[in-house]
Amino acid sequence: MDYELPEELRMLKETVRRFVDREIIPIEREAYEGHNLKKDVRAKLEDKAKEIGLWQFDVPEEYGGLGMGLLAKCVVWEEMGRTIAIPTRGGSVFGPAVSPILYHLNDQQKEKYLYPVLKGESWGCFAQTEPEAGGDPGGMRATAVRDGDDYVINGYKRFITGADKADFAQVLAATDREKRSRGGISAFLVDMDTPGVKLVRPQETMMDDRPWEISFDDVRVPVANRIGEEGDGFKFGQTWITAGRMRHAARGLGVAERCMELSGAYATQRSTFGAKLSERQAVQFMMVDTWMETKSTRALVLNTAARCDDGGDIRSDSYMCKILGDELAFRACDKAMQIHGGIGLTTDLPIEKLWRDSRSMVITEGPPEILRMVLARGFFREYGG
Q: How confident is the model at residue 106 (pLDDT cuts 50, 70, 90)?
């Protein structure tokens, strides 16, 4: 595709940018109460999202949403990445967060789980990561053993965002350990009030996130609560995570954009030893490097998203986008912090929070080391001779 967005998406980008600049950035330092967005702030922003016509932009049309494609979503995610007001994970003011897995439920499951989420009457969390199975989900130890009309789930999950608010969890567990991720993992809908489900503790992190550890002790789940066929769990999980990686990449572009805005303005105003920072080559090179990396990464992200909308397989390219976008964001924040000096370390500016969040995003939903390892297989298939 051409680098230039189609006109309707340029208009979308402008709409979201105005929303962020006028409604969100001015209040971003007063938007939180503890680790959560204030209820009155959320309500106001949600009303504004409805007013500008972006409510449930990422929900398929058949379920009452706008049904935007991945390219349009990336446009929205990039612009929202420019502000620290909205929680980096599990946060949205455009409607209830809906895991893409829920769209794969059968009709009975949708009635109980999907539709209440869409109405804002219910909340779900996604439980895959374990203490010894994060980047390598195929090695998960949580098991689901068939027992008549039930499965019995035992295991431990970690870093589960929103578990304390969830009414149910989408749980991935091994049904055949020998097969690992190649048909050995299944997905289940588990009500959080099911006997044996226990919220163990919140995990304190350097970000605003407070993900939870959950234990499953002889938790009986009806076969009717299995998502798809036995062994389909990893496939469903990867469908969700592929979109998540593109969101990482788009967010990274927004973060870099905000850092350039802040640094550019500061460097043209701040003088040291008789010259503006913008006149110093060391600062110029830092900003130009961020600018070049942002433009090149954006081209790959937009191209990848457009190919997805056309039905293409973007799994490998989504790895590249995730790596480039997340690493770009962290470098851009680090340079912006250096350019601002001491003031960049304070909470007077959003840089320190962007920096902390960006560092965490490099690790989650696929560490770059693991993604590069997988990409290496494709590289040697193509160039190995």
A: very high
Which position among 14, 178, 365, 369 bears the catalytic label?
365
Domain(s) of CATH 1.10.540.10: residues in the chain: 7-102
Residues in contact with 78: Cβ distance below 8 Å, sequence separation at least 6, in sequence order: 13, 250, 251, 253, 254, 257, 298
The length of the chain in residues reads 385
Is residue 325 within 8 A of residue 297, CB to CB? The reply is: yes
204 is catalytic: no
Cross-strand bridge partners of residue 36: 33
pLDDT (0 to 100) of residue 3: 61
pTM beyond cutoff 0.85? yes
Which CATH number, 1.20.140.10, 3.90.1150.10, 1.10.260.40, 3.20.20.70, labels domain 235-383?
1.20.140.10
For residue 2, pLDDT over 70 is answered with no
Would the pLDDT of 97 be above 60?
yes
DSSP secondary structure of 50-87: HHTT-TTTTS-GGGTS----HHHHHHHHHHHTT-SSS-
Dihedral in degrees, nearest 10, Cα atoms 191, 194, 197, 203: 40
Q: What kind of fold does domain 124-227 have according to CATH?
A: Butyryl-CoA Dehydrogenase, subunit A; domain 2 (2.40.110)
Query: Which has more confidence, 323 or 183?
Result: 323
Alpha helices in the chain (DSSP H): 7-19, 39-51, 70-80, 107-109, 115-118, 233-269, 281-309, 315-340, 351-363, 368-383
Alpha carbon distance 359, 213 (integer Å): 21
What's the pLDDT tens digit per position in 221-238? Answer: 999 999 999 999 888 777
| CATH number corresponding to 7-102 | 1.10.540.10
